[in-house]
Amino acid sequence: MTTMKRRNFLKGAGLAAAATSVAAPAIAQSSPEVRWRLTSSFPKSLDTIFGTAQTFAKYMADATDGKFQIQVFAPGEIVGGLQAMDAVENGSVECAHTPTYYYIGREPALGVATGLPFSLNARQSHSWWHFAGGKEIINEILGKYNCTSLVCGNSGAQMGGFFRKEINTVDDLKGLKFRIGGLGGQVLAKLGVVPQQVAPGDVYPALERGTLDAAEFVGPYDDEKLGFLKVAKYYYAPGFWEGGAMLHLVINKQKWDDLPKHYQAIMSNAAEAANNWMLAKYDAVNGQALRRMVGAGAELRTFSQPIMEASLKAANELYEELSAKNANFKKAYDSMVAYRADVLPWWQLNEYAFDTFMIRTRGRA
Amino acid sequence: MTTMKRRNFLKGAGLAAAATSVAAPAIAQSSPEVRWRLTSSFPKSLDTIFGTAQTFAKYMADATDGKFQIQVFAPGEIVGGLQAMDAVENGSVECAHTPTYYYIGREPALGVATGLPFSLNARQSHSWWHFAGGKEIINEILGKYNCTSLVCGNSGAQMGGFFRKEINTVDDLKGLKFRIGGLGGQVLAKLGVVPQQVAPGDVYPALERGTLDAAEFVGPYDDEKLGFLKVAKYYYAPGFWEGGAMLHLVINKQKWDDLPKHYQAIMSNAAEAANNWMLAKYDAVNGQALRRMVGAGAELRTFSQPIMEASLKAANELYEELSAKNANFKKAYDSMVAYRADVLPWWQLNEYAFDTFMIRTRGRA
């Protein structure tokens, strides 16, 4: 299950080259057979997110004529979903498909890699990653953990989740038992929310019993499958804590460095293509799922401006605290903030003006 | 300069295989050396758009260890920018990087492939292409021209161009000599605009003399280089005729079919990666260019709602006319409209709500 060592392979190929004059062995040298294992942080039932890793693996096999095989494992088959990066770090697997914000306990800057509450949308995130310092900063930090990464998937803006009761004021958040993780949970905790970690299978009964007041997952297509609508009918937008969550293929640094350069190139392109597959699929299925859920009784709500404003203030406080005590976080955060300051005025002038008109006239266009 | 014929190559490789027992020749069979020519419709000076073809070619070479070489030509080196698809059709070149709307005179449906006025933004376009029928419909149509295609680039929403005078009412459009092409020009012609085809090098003097009243190109990063600001200071948003223009790699169908399957897979991924490179780069450089142009005296304006509404009405009339007389256009257009009806309510609820809050609070986030 490990990468074929290139050195050894070249040695064998050298012998073959001596036996024949065709150019073939030179080609064989550079395209070894490779088998990797990938552990995903997402359950198989979420076919878009788990499917992104499968799609990536298929792209790798197809592009190498079957020579680079990646076997995809669900959480629990090798390690749990929250231990995916650790398994890459210690070499148990070659790579993982995971949101790096799962590891903010070890390294807060990895929250910036996925996307912070109130940071960037999907397109802006991708641009920051490739053209505004994101990739360099995050992969330098990941190097400390014997890892590197490629962006490989984006959810788009996520929904705010299902709530048993309407939430109108900031006061309504006090004591609210909300299944929400990561920095989004830390932001809302400053406003009195009690963030809960509950395994997916346990959320439904917890909402039914009232042990939980609310739960957030991803967006309509995934949320519909979970069936929470039956016990918590208020469906809130937007999930301001994940405006465009980037997922990463986290790769063991040594295994990456051992790959022939053109396998690295194939993998970089396959990750970009799988990234687009995920976002494009969500953008094609979420609208229909939302309509079905509304038909089934979902009451759509948007968080009130006072709740959004108070959350923004809490987020900014949290980022100040984290920046003060963690230089890596500060470096990644400052880079994102500088990018955002450049992009938003331009977005407002043009991209947003186009979207606004299309939304305002929908049904007439 | 043509693809190595796979049949012939296999014949030669079969002889080599008989001479040795190593697996190498089997590998060599499937990874032939290939040299293609690509003609771009964009001048070298537009380093992001022309650069997308160069980036694609580099990705192909890197992913094949240099075996698949694509030489990129600027307009005029082989054929003119508007003849790129024709050159692919007749086999003068293997592929072209071009907006398919250049060929609406031959096939109006190709306007839908790039994106119609008031159709979809960049992300929605990509989703429609891959998951809502776009790719299948357009490539079936391109088959008639001995071509197939991959999406390979997106501009994001384009700007509305430079105007010598402010345009406030629909009446102000009457007689306006505007350098604008394609279906955007046809839409505005219904409101009295006189669309002009002017080569890039001739636009500046035409604006200075008053032979032109206005000219549109792409967005701030490209527009800044053209220097039109000195003779036409009103810079309008949004370019509602190109809300997220998709560029295509148009490929000779025979050459595509002749490629080994894994070269096709490598090319599909490289095109997706180059697509992201272009959009991410624009999203990183347009904001800064806009700020510089404002510093240099650009007066930002947005088209008034009556102008936008009248343009939408004119666009819908045009689409009705085209649908009535062209079945291919109708098929592609109806597919886009069905996708848009699904995606926009969802976009409004969530993605747009996130963007709205981020824009409203910018400077405070």
TrEMBL record, chains A, B:
Signal peptide: 1-28
Residue ranges of coiled coil: none
Top-level taxon: Bacteria
PROSITE patterns given in the database record: TAT (PS51318)
Pfam family, one: DctP
Organism: Microvirga makkahensis
Keywords on record: Metal-binding, Signal
NCBIfam families, per the entry: TAT_signal_seq, TRAP_S1
Gene3D superfamilies noted in UniProt: Bacterial extracellular solute-binding protein, family 7, Periplasmic binding protein-like II
Keyword Signal found: yes
Residues the entry annotates as binding Na(+): 217
Residues where substrate binds: 158, 179, 216, 242
Protein name from the UniProt record: Twin-arginine translocation signal domain-containing protein
GO BP, sorted A to Z: transmembrane transport
Keyword tRNA-binding among UniProt keywords: no
